[in-house]
Specification:
By secondary structure, this protein is an alpha+beta fold. It contains three helices and eleven strands, in the order ααβββαββββββββ. The radius of gyration is 15 Å and the shape is globular.
Length: about 180
């Protein structure tokens, strides 16, 4: 993400105060129904290969600030922890109240998810990234996935372990990572 995208995070946090809880709930419901292809304001295309549904979450309102500082307040939750090698599509819903994203990185056999070290700017090294979802209502990389929206990407994944994480400042350390096994 660009520096400019980081600035948008604060803006989104302010905007969410006026966001409709009902709209987010509706988005959640639509996301769980496989036959429905619209989530909130987004219309999803048919996605190729094995589809992994991903939810990005963070704690709400009063708890959010303190949770961010103490860690463990943000999550990446996937519909499965294992998928067949080949064409894999990630359908990523931001169910939280902050802007998020999802980066896909190989995870060496000697490592476990969550052990990457953030640098001074609160982000981890994305070197070797195979792709990301950070484009509101659209495919691939952008300036961040807005709350209550969905983005997607289709990748070719060889067998191996992968780590899916959000690389906005502080989000990895706050718990936004998960492991996916491809075989
Ligand atoms: Cu995030």
């Amino acid at each position: 993400m660009s520096t400019r995208a980081f600035l948008l995070v604060g803006t989104a946090a302010v905007l969410l105060a006026g966001a409709s809880t009902a709209a987010l709930a509706a988005a959640s419901g639509a996301f769980r129904a496989a036959s429905v292809r619209s989530v909130g304001q987004c219309s999803l295309p048919a996605l190729a290969g094995s589809v992994v549904d991903v939810s990005l979450t963070n704690m709400m309102n009063g708890q959010m600030g303190r949770g961010w500082m103490t860690g463990g307040s943000m999550r990446v939750v996937t519909s499965t922890d294992h998928v067949s090698a080949g064409t894999v599509s990630f359908r990523v819903a931001n169910m939280g109240t902050l802007v998020h994203e999802l980066v896909v990185l190989p995870l060496p056999a000697t490592q476990i998810a969550g052990n990457r070290v953030a640098t001074i700017d609160g982000r981890v090294d994305e070197m070797g990234s195979l792709g990301e979802v950070s484009n509101t209502c659209a495919r691939g990389a952008g300036t961040g996935l807005s709350p209550g929206t969905v983005g997607w990407v289709t990748l070719q994944l060889p067998p191996g372990n992968y780590e899916l994480f959000c690389d906005l400042a502080g989000h990895y350390a706050a718990g936004m990572y998960v492991e996916l096994t491809v075989s």
